Amino acid sequence: MEILAFGVQADERPLIENAFRGHHEVRCLDVFLNADTAPIAAGHEIICTSVNCDLGHQVLQTLAAGGTQMVAQRSTGFNNIDLGVAERLAMTVARVSYYSPYSVAEFAWTLAMAVNRRIVRASTRTRDFDFRLDGLMGRDLHGRTAGVLGTGKIGEAFARIAHGFGMRLLGWDIAENPACVELGMEYVAKERLLAESDVVSLHVPLLPRTEHLIDAAALKSMKDDAILVNSSRGGLIDTAALVTELRAGRFTGVGLDVYEAEAGLFFLDKSLQAIEDDTLARLVTFPNVLVTSHQAYYTVDAVGQIIDTTVANVLDYRAGRRSENVLVPRS
């Protein structure tokens, strides 16, 4: 059986091919699944997708008509999949419910430190042999407050790093994480966390109730010199409202590895094209903003775990087994 994998990055290809070797043939495509590319999957019982693939109603209908019966998603997030439609079409859907939390937590802190210490500006200057320090002053993090919105495995790893810096910890979640409490984290209301934190990092899933969790009111409640980091999902932040606050000169720095309208942009080379997204175009012009292209998870350790789990999900499907990774079971 040949499995069709969409949205495969060049670094991922050999890992995917090696992982499936001895089990199934796999064909890796660098194009993302959407309404235009869905017909390519005709005749493939199993497809493998990434978080920036479109698995909405129209695409799922096309896949089902072509004979696809299983979607194996190479990510934890699944907000790009219409699970209700998949269930009606009797299409099995599985995801990767766990991979290295350190990859994302460490990258979140990389963003925070980069904007705090003006690393990008400093690097650009020194390439031009400009060694002045004007405008590069940062702040010690020791003794300041880190606010963690979402204290699951990734949020916990982020908190452990903050604890290592000697920071005070505030947390917000639907349930307390005992490991975070042991670190000295105090769970508080979101409003208090935003008002008191010097660094705010988002580690919650994108759900209807968390969309624009950081809206205009939330942004206004934050300290003027706070650092905001999002390495989770772009839709957690109202980006237009964020641009408004940045134009007012607020925030020491903002580090974004995700963007709410990233589909069709991130993971692609758009360097020779005009960017039609005015909000993103404005966002990247701010000197205190650092935007990266959804790469927080992108370590050999995390990607290896993601691919191994994806292979296991396919083998479970073929054997009629069900695991915690299954979002829509085989009918």
UniProtKB/TrEMBL annotation:
UniProt GO MF annotations: D-lactate dehydrogenase (NAD+) activity
Domain D-isomer specific 2-hydroxyacid dehydrogenase catalytic: 8-327
This protein's record includes keyword NAD: yes
Pfam families reported for this sequence: 2-Hacid_dh (PF00389), 2-Hacid_dh_C (PF02826)
EC number: 1.1.1.28
Enzyme class: oxidoreductase
Residues in D-isomer specific 2-hydroxyacid dehydrogenase NAD-binding domain copies: 110-296
Stated name of the protein: 2-hydroxyacid dehydrogenase
Protein family according to the UniProt entry: Belongs to the D-isomer specific 2-hydroxyacid dehydrogenase family.
Organism of origin: Streptomyces broussonetiae
Alphabetized UniProt keyword annotations: NAD, Oxidoreductase
